[in-house]
Amino acid sequence: MDIVQEDEIAEIKATAATPEELSWIEFQLKEKQAALSRLENTAKYLSGLSSVTLTIILGPNNEIFRSLTHSITLKAGIISWLISILCTLVVLFPFRYRYANNSVDSIRRLHKKMAGLKFIFLLLGCLFYIAGICLVAFIFITNQASVTK
What we know:
The chain is mostly helical. It has one domain. It is built from five helices and no strands.
């Protein structure tokens, strides 16, 4: 193995990328650029799903929940559900994107930062939704037998 000295320049032999390799590189770039819109679309669906399921569960079946108005578990489930909706709405909020004009590095850093923040809020929205639906479903299942008697 040859060891390159500090003052020497290492020579790297490269070949031109094939059309297939170029298409994959272009695909990767497009996917990174579309990350914000994918996160926002997912947040729209989760926000709608959370709202609809919360309405369905609390609407027609509220005779079970009327007797549990002082249940901490029920309140925690509903609060988790509402936090889920708020987290997904944060993802959808039209933040001001401030970056230096014509600066690729500034735009790239801002895009990466916004994608990271939106991903975190979307993930929190998913986790709170799952926690909320599990808590409310647990209450519903455990108390359904006492209501039907």
